[in-house]
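INTERNAL AUDIT FORM
Audit reference: QA-55
Scope: verify that the stored structure record matches its stored sequence.
Auditor: D.O.
Record contents follow.
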Amino acid sequence: MIRSFDTLYLHPGLEDHPRAMELLRRIPYRRLERLERMQELKERMRLEPEATVARGKYSAALAPYPGRMVEGCPATPGMCCCRYRVINLIMGCPFDCSYCILQGYLNRPTIFIYPELEKIFGEVDREIASCNEYPLRFGTGELSDSLALEHFTGFAHPLLEFFRNRPQCWFEFKTKSTRVQSLLEFSPVPGNIVVSWSVNPPGVIGSEERGAPALGSRLKAAQAVSAAGYRLGFHFDPVFHYEGWEDDYRKVVEEIYRRVDPGRVAWISLGTLRYSSWLAGLLQRRFQGHRLLAGELFPVRPDGKYRYPQPLRVEIYRRMHDWIRAFDSEVYVYLCMESAVVYRWALGREVGGDELAVERGFPAPPGWRAGVI
């Protein structure tokens, strides 16, 4: 885990921004530079992308976000989408997971932190006002880990305060970290907040999730926030297929429900290993010899991403769904980046008629009422 950044870059437009100045006091760094100096890193990334991705995890930049800070999840057309609303608060992650799309997707040699929370709050309110057909779910865990840098940023409390007053929508912290102290210090706990963990068997975490806490540490943190009153979520994404995967993943499900009350789990998602063709070369160079990335994957329509064959994915989802249902008959289970056909074959249920929406059964937050804005 990063204890301090080697370099912190500051955009000149934030030199008078109160939260940016607070972050300068909170974040430990060795050297402060103006953002224009990052051009040197960008050139280095062009010449040696593999090394620069790793080095970029030890630098950070404070900058205004160039565009909308709240966007829909970039789901592939034809794949079912859970309507996750992405809050672009941080881009980049201190963990170095072998399968992470961010290492090729963001193409930036540093972690970007965007201090303009007020802009985010305004965009969220506009989204809420324009949608009264289904409950919205917002989260900061798409382009970064929601809590891995919380001890530096302190963003959790203003987010909790804001969403406590918007009970008609969900807010999700999605993480692999154990940085939950700020959540435990916030009271009373809002009923529409979910703290979710990405989980994998210990062997997968050890080989593929460099720098991330062990499974036991993640579940201990989940126990703590559940005891404090938060709802929980778990994301088995990506699931790897290898010899002995059934025993390993079944044990993870058993360990989750040994530690937490089923009634506290709001949702569980399932997704198998997948990556874009343009990312394959970078993964091969950065993680040469990683057997879990070297399975039999094929480009699959409509997005051309490399995936396990469809019958194998269906079998994985069926088994995991059965293991979860053995402990919890009520929790909402959904698939990430899968088609309506895979939904039907794997989970035995149809999804929404527009094919871009998970069916209306996604759980509603405590303050949501259909047709009421």
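Auditor finding: record pair retrieved intact. The radius of gyration is 20 Å.
Action required: none
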